[in-house]
Give the backbone structure.
Amino acid sequence: MRKFLMGATACGALASAALAAPTLDGVRDAAYGTPKAVQTVQTGFGDANPNGGSELDAAYAHIEGGTLYLMLTGNLENNFNKLNIFFDSQAGGQNVLQNDANNGGNNPENDGWAAKYAGFTFDTGFQADYMLILRNGNFGGDRFEIDFATIGGGLGAFQAASSVFGGSLTGSNANALPNGIGVAHDRSNTGGVLGGDQAASQAAAAAVTTGIELSIPLAAIGNPVGEFSISAMINGSNHDYLSNQFLGGLMPPQGNLGGDGMGSFNGTVGQLNLNNFAGEQFFVVPEPASVALVALAGVVLLRRRA
Ligand SMILES: [Ca+2]
Ligand SMILES: [Ca+2]
Ligand SMILES: [Ca+2]
């Protein structure tokens, strides 16, 4: 009897562990499973070991209860360099990014990103609908900031939040933005990829457990149906000098892209075309397993009825 009870308890614990949503704390949870993308190139923005530097080690995604949990392991240097995350989560969108609405385009103008990206081309098939901008540093105290922009939404189509962790670079805020997007940051990683432009150790990249974690209501990104895609990249503090840290990753050897693809600064990243760089600089978030299971159950039910 006792044995049976213990077995049942263990089963219950296993079931609840499998169903537990990630905790928004900047630490990778078991629920994420295997990575959706792992870094392929050493970082040209400085190895975050022991201090400073930015690197994108791996991307993880988990959808549960109408929320996309997104975990990007690695480090974002506290010098207001940008982690830009683009979502292709609905039909339409911009494969070639346009300028902001004050400069002849149709994108919002929050921190000047659109003017710097105008003309930037994603890999074929990726048409951006939304973006997140994350940055941290010290300006009147430590702060971590997050902006959300609707691509093609015009001037006012953004939300912005500053100092979401109350005067700290790190922390967790489950409702950082009005649309319900939450963010957490743990900058303690000292492992992961090394500095350079050669092939990264993918085992080291996949071993990193800390970084930036987001909880994103699916409604905030257009209620995507089926699988959708995300392109993440680290840019300079003025959106005008791209690193070599993308997910999906670039092919080594590859230094920072800068503005011309060869590491030179020219004031814009709008001349860059990701089709000119091997591989897909985006990763796919599959349809949630529960949805697939429900669909499968429906098929089984139909077959039984037939
Ligand atoms: Ca977590
Ligand atoms: Ca789209
Ligand atoms: Ca490419």
Summary: The two ends are 43 Å apart (CA to CA).
